[in-house]
Amino acid sequence: MILNQIITRDASCSSAADGYAKIGVKIGRGEPYTNTWSNGLKDVWETSDLAIGTYSVSVLDIFNYEVTVSFEIKSSNAGIQLADQVQSPSCSGQPDGRISLYVLGGIASYTYKWNNGSSSKDLNNIPAGDYQVQIIDQKGCSLQKSFKIEAPLAMTISSSLTEASCTGDVNGVITLTVAGGKTPYSYLWNSGATTKDISDLAVGNYSVRATDAYGCSVEKQFKISSRSALEVNVIEATSASCEGKADGKIKLGIKGASGKYTLSWSDGTSGDLSRSNLKAGTYQVIVTDESGCGVTKSIQLSEPSALTARIESMLDVDCGGINRGDCLGFDSRWKGAFQHNLEYW
User: Fold this and answer.
1) What is the average pLDDT score of the chain?
2) Is there a single domain that holds both residue 221 and residue 245?
């Protein structure tokens, strides 16, 4: 079996599927003849929708004798050539990405059709995503290309908090772990600190802004609480009534404790909220609850000064010329008055 010379016509451009080819049997041993094309066509002797490329066709006669021929479809004009420059967004969620195109070949001028509806050559201020463009020249030849714009990995902040032991303590700690963006990171806390972690914190609200090398940032808020709101209040503090007398009293009130609490007094007593029979002096108590919070309170008991008496003046009595009995009577009355006043000194 002998085939006719293949007739071909190149595609109008590299992107056009309008190439043409025709095959035929010149000498054969009998019909029917069948054929199979490398692009999937069957029993077709001519076609005009071929893109540029190399093709083959196998022809069989009634006796399954096979002859295979090959041919190439080229482009009659230089196809559109494309170079590009892609700039990803600076930060996650920021619409400042860019796709810039540099087009050669084909026949200028060109039109552009983007999948986001734009007809401009370049795309500016775009978020991360998938983009496709079709470039068409004056002859109708076209080129398509797809782009994937990826944003930097979003910055995240995770943290570990250590609460203050007691409401009034300043021993809370915030430890940060920052991921995403581009290192190195910088930090700014609402307290003015610029370190990654902060410590010696009182109960309260804190916030931080972490910024990466590109200027992208993320913020997070924190609340430092206390493990215990333990308070020790002095309900009664009665000093001794006299010097050296042990009749002073102390009574305490406890609130806000976490779990059970223990009391330890500086004079060795423990566990008592109410104390009596106390001499003047300073008494210190330490109250600790199950969270480890400890509060120290000092109470001062005083005493009055010791009672003293003194004679401010003396009166001499001259009994000369006076009846001895009268003088003695006057003297006894004066002494009684002096003793009476002394009692109320």
Assistant:
1) 87
2) no
